[in-house]
Amino acid sequence: MSDRTDGGESVTESAKSKNTLPLETSIPADALPLEAILCTEELRRRPSRPPDYEKENRALATLARALAYSPRTILQTLAETILDITQSDSSGVSLLTPDGKRFYWPALAGRWTPHIGGGTPRDFGPCGDVLDRNMPLLMRHWELRYTYFSPISPPAEEGLLAPFYVGGKAVGTIWVVMHDARRKFDAEDERVLSRLSEFASTAYQTLATIDELRFQISEHQKAERAVRVTVCPKCGRPLTQVGPDGECLRCVFDWGFTSETEGSEDPTHSGVEPRPLNYGHFEIEMDAHGVPIALGAGAMAVTYRARDTILNSIVALKVIGRKLAENPTACARFLREARAAAQIQHPNVARVIHYGEQDGECFYAMELVDGDTLEERVKRDGPLPVSLALEVIEQTARGLAAGEARGVIHRDLKPSNLMIESDRSGQPMVKIIDYGVAKVMASDATIQTQAEFIGTPAFASPEQFDEAGQQQIDTRSDIYALGITFWYLLTGRTPFASRSIEEIRTKQTQQLPLEQLKSVHAPAKVAALLKSMLAADPARRPQTALELLAAIHRCYPRFESAAHRRRKRLASSNRRTRRN
Amino acid sequence: MPGTLQEGGAPFQTTHWTVVLQAGQGEADQSARKALATFSETYWPPFYTFVRRRGYPPADAQDIVQGFFEHLFKQNTLSRADQEKGRLRTFLLGSLQNFLLKQRERMSAIKRGGDQQLVSFDLHLPETEAAMQATAHLNEVSCYDLTWAATIAKRSWQQLHETLVAEGKAQWLDELKPFVAGVGAAPPNQEEVAARLGVPVATLRTWLSRLRQRYRELLRAEVANTVSNPADVNGELRYLHRILMA
């Protein structure tokens, strides 16, 4: 009995062992009727011993102790107590499996203990008949009715069974067996059996209820654990679906999905906060998704479309990267250059109208040009006709001349820094943007490295590559860059297309690929102008913007008259303005 | 310093539907098998989760999923899929349910530990089990759909990651990732991250917008791989989103 008293099993699971001798039965067609083996009526007629209340109370006290100290073994204690109080040979408790199809023995005591195990079908044994009749039954030699595969050992002489109730429902039996005829059960045995069964069933029911409660608690705990799994700090949902680095896949999907549809349930999901972004009194304009509208971006700065909240006008706002802005020297130089650029009042230069610093960032506002950059124009429409390209170069040279008069050079002239729009009469109007910015950047040694060449290598002059800084950078550098730009406008490409700065430097000293110009039918004078602008030696280029202008005019006589007409138009326009 | 993000695209040459259909044709060859293996490598979790939720222990569930993919490949049962095909997710769930109905007889044909296994479960099995345990309140079909949606999200996210790493932008992605998904203690502050990266806040927002655009394209491409009619992409995306956000 020692294996039955460990107290660790649940009540409903404590009878899974004991497979020594299966008592599988089957009732043959000619089996004896139940009445043939029943002797319950005789039990009532037998002389009964007097009740032994003292013993009965001791038995109840034993069961009560078992309930208090070892509740899991209450059924086993019951079987042993009954065995003792009835002085029988074997005793036990049979319970139906949850599906109601079989009986199993959660508790056995006495001589049968080592010999029986497993279980019996619900309808092929004495227990089933007890449940059917729902009353105590006394049977004699029941093997005559239930044909067992192997003889019962030791054989049973008489068995007394009483229903075992849980929650008012008979779910099993409690029984005692005599293996010989030395003693016959009497009415007192039936009474004691029923009494102890009643007590035990109440205890068992309590235990079963506790078990059920515990099961429910554990299920709740499981569910709670599932709910209590780490919660995504962003979306607040259980972090159950995670990516390779623990990312919340719900957030990831939502982020990718909601931008497609009308709004997200939480705009912060996008990582883009919808609040306005202000620099000074300029407010950056946002698109429908709360993303700033960028007009252009370089390595160190981004230009946004912004609104001047005082004048209620639209401007281009250039915000300089913090890496540059954090350097006080660079910042001071930037301010100086911005001031100088602001002095350039010329129709071909986009005017700087404000400079500011905020939270460690520098920015300046400039006139917004409503047009394309020449890079965009060429990429979209292909190379420009020679006359238009000359017009662009001529107007740019005028802008450069204005800067030159103020002692300011551009240092990063290229098609993406030239905007083209139409004036009121539909004539093309060129605007140079980003005046002076490159010089500030280039002056800061900490940010100029081979990898972060300031300016644009494909448009830079040979002297801009001079690492020793021996050569002075002046207007002639801008003239060189304008020459490359001119080349690009005519052919759609730069003359020294290369993958590395070194390669560009080498090619700059070699013969110009003039065949590229022939393929676009550039006149000889234009080719000659380009050769002079692209001379590797600055001394062999036009020395000033005004000299360049004269050279441009010389190479294209008809241009001279067109320029004359434009100048005349501008002059009369200015006169009207003054009169007004 | 990252430059302009290039247009992204799905690396699959064929759709997942094509893979499954080819596998189900009689003339399936080695390349079809390889394609199915690649598909199953990514998409086994929903099937595994479904089978587990049907009460099968882990080892049996692995055998069944393995057997299911083998069944897709070996049996010429998918020809009718041509007429019935719509959403791969629902089609495969139906196929798996049918397979499970007959799995008793088929289990005998499934050999555990064979040398021609289509699916390798070793990778990601623990998190798949954990995800399944954590969604005990869902029924098996909801669990399947949820895992399918998460697999789509995960695969697109991995593709984005791989592309950016190839472009040398891994560190950049690491900085932006916390804005997308809850990996940290709390959503980061845009100003702080912009300061750390040395760019204006507006630039950071623009980067996030571009990253999002790129992920969106990959997500759409992945979903498009699982529907036969391109017009169903939006509907499927909406459904998967609803499942994930439920």
Describe this protein with a few key phrases:
heterodimer; A: 580 residues; alpha+beta; Beta-Lactamase; Phosphorylase Kinase, domain 1; 4 domains; seven-stranded antiparallel sheet; six-stranded antiparallel sheet; 39% helix; 17% strand; B: 246 residues; mainly alpha; 12 helices; 67% helix; elongated; disordered N terminus
Number of domains of chain B: 1
Stretches with pLDDT under 50, minimum 5 residues of chain B: 1-13, 111-115
**Could you tell me the mean pLDDT of chain A?**
77
- What is Rg of chain B? 20 Å
* Oligomer description: heterodimer
Proportion of helical residues of chain B: 55-70%
Q: What is the makeup of the main sheet of chain A?
A: 7 strands, antiparallel
Name the structural class of chain A: alpha+beta
Number of helices of chain B: 12
- Could you tell me the CATH topology label of the largest domain in chain A: Beta-Lactamase
Overall shape of chain B: it is elongated
Please provide the count of β strands of chain B.
0
Termini separation of chain B? 38 Å
Rounded radius of gyration of chain A (Å): 52 Å
CATH architectural label of the largest domain in chain A = 2-Layer Sandwich
Largest inter-chain contact set: A-B, 61 and 60 residues
* Beta-strand proportion of chain B: under 5%
CATH class category label of the largest domain in chain A: Alpha Beta
Q: How many individual β-strands of chain A? A: 18
- Mean pLDDT of chain B, nearest integer? 76
Q: Any overview of this molecule?
A:
- The complex is a heterodimer of chains A (580) and B (246).
- Chain A is built from 18 helices and 18 strands.
- In chain A, the strands form 4 sheets. In chain A, strands 9, 10, 11, 12, 13, 14 and 15 form a 7-stranded antiparallel beta sheet that branches. A 6-stranded antiparallel beta sheet of chain A has the order 4-3-2-8-7-5, with helices on both faces.
- Chain A is rod-shaped and about 145 Å long.
- The N terminus of chain A is likely disordered.
- Chain B has 246 residues and is an all-alpha fold.
- The relative contact order of chain B is 0.14.
- Chain B has 12 helices and no strands.
